[in-house]
Amino acid sequence: MTSILTEPVTGPSAWRAADFTGEDDWVVTLTPEEIHELDAALTSARIRELPLEALTMADFPLPALGKTLERAVQDLEFGRGFTVLRGLPVERWTPDEARLAYWGIALHLGTPVSQNADGELIAHVKDYDEGGLDNPATRAYRTRNALPFHTDSSDIVGLLCLRGAGQGGGVSTLASSMTVHNHLLAHHRELLGLYYRGFVYDRRTEEGSQELPYYRNAVYGYFDGQLSCRFYMTHYIESAVAKTGIPLSGIERHALRLFQDIAERDDHRVEMTLRPGDLQLLNNNVVVHGRSAYEDDPGRRRDLLRLWLNTRYARCIPEDFARFRRGMPRTRR
Amino acid sequence: MTSILTEPVTGPSAWRAADFTGEDDWVVTLTPEEIHELDAALTSARIRELPLEALTMADFPLPALGKTLERAVQDLEFGRGFTVLRGLPVERWTPDEARLAYWGIALHLGTPVSQNADGELIAHVKDYDEGGLDNPATRAYRTRNALPFHTDSSDIVGLLCLRGAGQGGGVSTLASSMTVHNHLLAHHRELLGLYYRGFVYDRRTEEGSQELPYYRNAVYGYFDGQLSCRFYMTHYIESAVAKTGIPLSGIERHALRLFQDIAERDDHRVEMTLRPGDLQLLNNNVVVHGRSAYEDDPGRRRDLLRLWLNTRYARCIPEDFARFRRGMPRTRR
């Protein structure tokens, strides 16, 4: 059986807004030496003309930046669960160079995994003109809608800002799902089991031909003395109802709304606006993230390069808690 | 939204085994005068040769027994939620007479409702040779299996014993689901939400042609200051999994097992063996019932006549909490 954690989570992952004085607490600005090292690694990797998947960490020697990245991984796994690396020179890189440099950094952080049915390892988070979140055939990252608090499927998500939203919006918000659990335990203990049971999510047309178009996933799981969270997009729950024929109960709707409300509290959430060259890294196990809606300038779309990855310190989680943690299966060719 | 009761239930419905000294606390033996009155009403109703559905309370005048039945309804709705009327002369009645007399009593208790897709208003609880509970095309009352604690769909269930099990078994067990809730609240509060969300149940081939073969129902609901329970057969949950493709989570299995374990505690449950002529009446809103497996004598099957009914004091419950409370839709002709 799955047990429910009935003690508060302590330590740096259970942070609150007041634990930070400002962005200096989580922004790590890369030094000129680190940028130089990255450019040199990029140049040597480009010369080899290998596909991304064929490259290894050894193809991107980063003796100094590598130590910074190791500290970032430690912050993600054992600290507050998020960090921002600032100053990647995305404006002077070509799109291909940005992609390759990002990949090189990713190999130092962990193992990138597929993010969708096309098997994409680096995906553009931007408006694809496929409509909004209410379109059950599209995924959230392909819209410019406000996204409520959620996690992605992998352990770690990286968002490298290439271009911000010209007409404003797209503010990033984070909250500690450990702090949300502490709040639920203290004030709504009778609801906890609902989150451990979880919800049924729509695969949003990404299922294989022999698979059901939905699956159940827990929001919280307590394994080996560690609490982990998977809070996928509530819109995927709503669109799954049409496929299962099983409506959400009033208590489930209440629990979903309550999770958002607790995460959104002023004393819980932090906000940040990513600049071009900022790489935001989040540990989905302990942090939920969202963003406000945004508007693009004509012909210049907000563009974040997204990575999903698992690091070398990845915690043990059963398969049925985080089914796509090691990547979304490639079901389209 | 549905709210969760976070105070203990008090009053006679939250009983424990030690609240009773023995069956004298719940058995009401009918007097010779009451039996005589019933026989007279039976005779006058038979002469009219009307179908059961055409008869009304006025066709069964029971001035004395009627008062006893009113007290039974009060016990069901406002008291401990169960009672046994003893001494119905089923052994000298023909099967048709027993059926008609039972119907007459039922009209004094409340309104009988359909129990299955055939629209049966009085069903025989006996072994139909359709296999056991594991056959997903049969319902529990048609087997001789042990039945774990459960409720039926209507508010009230009546079981009139025509014949016991010749080779033993079939012992009836009851527990207060109000006491189970009190225990959960005190010792497993974090699980309560799971019961208020409920489970998905198999319709067991009784769905209409335009209906899904399963539906979700809550175990507990708190409405208008009153807690109510619907804990349908766990076997129906298991067989629904094959139809939805959504497996039970570990925490759901734990919650289902825990409910049984709490109800089965020696300090919670009471046991009784029904004799021919015993009419056991239970309020599903506050009492769960089960029975042990049994073996029949060759050619003489254990036979209980079952009624589902709603009484004039029926509590207000939303439709989505107890969908078939007013009867299982007749979908077979």
TrEMBL record, chains A, B:
Cofactor: Fe(2+)
Iron as UniProt keyword: yes
One Pfam family cited in the UniProt record for this chain: TauD
PANTHER family: GAMMA-BUTYROBETAINE HYDROXYLASE-RELATED (PTHR10696), TAUD_TFDA-LIKE DOMAIN-CONTAINING PROTEIN (PTHR10696:SF56)
GO molecular function, one term: dioxygenase activity
Protein known as: TauD/TfdA family dioxygenase
Keyword list, A-Z: Antibiotic biosynthesis, Dioxygenase, Iron, Oxidoreductase
Highest taxon of the lineage: Bacteria
Keyword Iron tagged: yes
Segments forming domain TauD/TfdA-like: 59-308
